[in-house]
């Protein structure tokens, strides 16, 4: 593609492990090759407590009756006690294994001391339990107990779990393992972590992986692509964890190319240092609270999958650790709507509570087909990379969805595996009115152009509706962000030439011109006395929204308003409410400050004019630009393009 590459410094040599300059693998670099199968493949561990005290032990095992003491790898039951593994992390996703894998059965193994009963139980699509296998022990001393369960009768849904019970004696159960027959060859796996100025979080996850190394047999390498100025290797504990991880750790410093550039670096390195296409690359965010068993669960599933597929982990909300973000999701591409829950999916569900409609515990019983999976934890087999190429150089936002939909078009589905979860910052605590909204909009339009019917009349209505809401809500910077995103889409594939570096700088400069994009402490709002700002709550959502919309537009055009000044809670900052103010002090979604929105008639008219013009251009020129992106995609997603971006 024409144009100059963005200025960048060359990536620094990894502090441990092999080379990171794109040269062929040397003796010290990891050469990814398949491992010989060893009879049994660990599919998941039976854990009874989480990796952190902020996580409830009830997500792993539930004390149904009596008294029991739960440790990470063991549980001790007093007489007349019952402990159930019918929990988020305790369940084995049997439905997914039956549908997608070649495994026919799963074995539960445990070391047992004392007297009591171990039972493997199963559920169906409605959550009704049944007993599959039972073993009673009496006076056991470190006895190795084995129970088998056939992976059948689960096609539409259901799971397996382990229940424990005592009567008169005590029972200690440890080292619980769920295993399946191993394939002849086991895929090597590389974890790749993209990080930028979250050094402490990233180091914590490296430490968690180091602590779990004995169980991570299939983990061959860990790539850390550090794109920040506050680097991970500046932390005191880095040298220690690097020594513990040894040759597995490959720490790379590179220019900031966003999440796409950070994650893709792992694919790039594995592809350059492998002698087999049967390898896995597991993407992982730097700021998650990691459950290391995720690595075991995703890699085992991939190793026994009948065909190569993307295997994603689920996201739990870090600020509310009992909440599942979504069971599985898809995107409405032509209307630019990601994060749509698939039918029957749990959504922002308390995993320790019940469904208010049915009264049943919040368990994902039905098997779901995902459209895509977020890259907070997502495993991609190298066969897929070889077939469809690398991710788009989007910088970030929509890179995960685009890749999954591209893979699906080539016959590679995405599976979101229940019970394979990490904790990530709650999305609804992130404000929408930020610079990253530019990438969300621009990249969503590109993705729609590549993988949807790209109905330009529908897309134009969607964008104009967004623009009207932003202007009514006095979000002039967000309106300019939308306009810039559409303009840059229309520039064609050249806008992606530098991986997003220039676009990031430019959109921040544009947004800085709009005062309402700045955040203030609630007692330090410029030009407004703190005591003068009182909350004015919203009325209910209008039943006749179109009529109210026309009324609000008319009042804005005439410069009329109902309130001169007021404070608006974040969850009440709807267009129909904010549009009644001359000045609104709106709480930021992060709950860390406020933004001041002031009515500006001139800016409103100018942005409306620009918005209508660019959307009309999109309607007229969109199909031609779509063809440009489709033609350029093989080059944009090529190894050569990413090598150029990495300056290798």
Average per-residue pLDDT, rounded, comes to 93
The main β sheet shows up as: 9 strands, antiparallel
CATH architecture assignment of the largest domain: Alpha-Beta Complex
The proportion of residues in beta strands is 25-35%
The total count of strands amounts to 25
Q: Structural class per helix/strand content?
A: alpha+beta
Total helices: the number is 15
Distance linking N and C termini? 18 Å
Q: What is the CATH level 1 assignment of the largest domain?
A: Alpha Beta
- Low-pLDDT residue spans: 1-16, 18-28
* CATH fold group of the largest domain: Spore Coat Polysaccharide Biosynthesis Protein SpsA, Chain A
As for the number of domains, it is 3
**What is the radius of gyration computed over CA atoms, rounded to a whole number of angstroms?**
27 Å
Helix content range: 25-40%
Instruction: Give the oligomer, counting copies of the same chain as homo and different chains as hetero.
Output: single chain
Based on Cα principal axes, name the global outline.
globular
């Amino acid at each position: 593609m024409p144009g100059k590459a963005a200025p960048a410094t060359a990536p620094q040599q990894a502090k441990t492990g092999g080379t990171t300059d794109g040269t062929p693998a040397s003796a010290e670099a990891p050469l990814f090759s398949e491992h010989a199968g060893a009879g049994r493949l660990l599919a998941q561990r039976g854990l009874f407590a989480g990796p952190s005290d902020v996580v409830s032990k009830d997500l792993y095992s539930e004390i149904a009756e009596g008294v029991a003491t739960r440790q990470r790898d063991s549980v001790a039951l007093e007489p007349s006690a019952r402990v159930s593994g019918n929990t988020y992390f305790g369940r084995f996703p049997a439905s997914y294994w039956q549908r997608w894998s070649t495994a026919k059965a799963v074995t539960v193994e445990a070391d047992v001391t004392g007297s009591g009963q171990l039972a493997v139980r199963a559920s169906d699509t409605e959550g009704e339990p049944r007993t599959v296998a039972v073993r009673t022990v009496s006076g056991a001393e470190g006895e190795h107990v084995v129970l088998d369960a056939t992976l059948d009768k689960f096609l539409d849904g259901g799971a397996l779990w382990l229940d424990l019970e005592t009567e008169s004696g005590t029972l200690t159960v440890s080292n619980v393992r769920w295993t399946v027959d191993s394939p002849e060859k086991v895929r090597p796996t590389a974890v790749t972590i993209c990080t930028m100025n979250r050094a402490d979080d990233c180091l914590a996850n490296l430490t968690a992986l180091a602590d779990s190394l004995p169980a991570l047999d299939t983990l061959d390498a860990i790539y850390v692509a550090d794109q920040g100025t506050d680097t991970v290797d500046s932390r005191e504990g880095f040298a220690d964890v690097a020594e513990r991880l040894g040759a597995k750790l490959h720490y790379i410093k590179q220019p900031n190319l966003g999440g796409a550039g950070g994650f893709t670096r792992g694919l790039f390195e594995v592809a350059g240092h492998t002698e087999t296409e049967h390898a896995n690359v597991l993407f992982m965010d730097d700021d998650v609270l990691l459950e290391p068993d995720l690595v075991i669960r995703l890699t085992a599933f991939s190793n026994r999958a009948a065909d190569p597929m993307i295997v994603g982990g689920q996201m739990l909300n870090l600020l509310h650790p009992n909440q599942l973000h979504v069971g599985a999701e898809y995107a409405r591409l032509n209307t630019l709507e990601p994060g749509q829950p698939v039918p029957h999916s749990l959504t922002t569900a308390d995993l320790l509570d019940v469904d208010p409609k049915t009264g049943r515990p919040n368990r994902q019983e039905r098997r779901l087909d995902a459209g895509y999976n977020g890259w907070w934890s997502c495993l991609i087999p190298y066969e897929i990379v070889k077939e469809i190429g690398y991710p788009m150089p989007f910088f970030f936002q929509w890179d995960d969805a685009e890749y999954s939909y591209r893979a699906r078009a080539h016959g590679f589905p995405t599976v979101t595996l229940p019970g394979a979860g990490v904790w990530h910052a709650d999305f609804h605590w992130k404000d929408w009115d930020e610079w990253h909204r530019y990438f969300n909009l621009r990249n969503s339009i590109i993705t729609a152009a590549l993988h949807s019917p790209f109905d330009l009349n529908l897309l134009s209505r969607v964008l104009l509706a967004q623009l009207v809401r932003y202007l009514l809500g006095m979000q002039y910077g967000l309106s300019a962000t939308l306009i810039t995103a559409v303009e840059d889409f229309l520039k064609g594939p050249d806008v992606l030439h530098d991986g997003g570096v220039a676009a990031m700088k430019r959109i921040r400069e544009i947004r800085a011109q709009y005062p309402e994009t700045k955040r203030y402490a609630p007692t330090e709002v410029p030009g407004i006395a703190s005591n003068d700002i009182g909350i004015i709550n919203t009325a209910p959502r209008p039943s006749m929204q179109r009529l109210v919309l026309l009324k609000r537009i008319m009042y804005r055009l005439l410069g009329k308003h109902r309130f001169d000044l007021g404070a608006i809670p974040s969850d009440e900052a709807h267009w129909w409410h904010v549009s009644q103010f001359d000045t609104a002090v709106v709480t930021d979604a992060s709950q860390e400050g406020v933004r001041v929105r002031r009515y500006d008639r001139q800016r409103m008219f100018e942005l409306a004019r620009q918005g209508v013009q660019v959307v009309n251009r999109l309607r007229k020129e969109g199909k031609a630009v779509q063809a440009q992106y489709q033609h350029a995609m093989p080059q944009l997603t090529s190894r050569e393009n990413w090598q150029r971006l990495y300056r290798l």
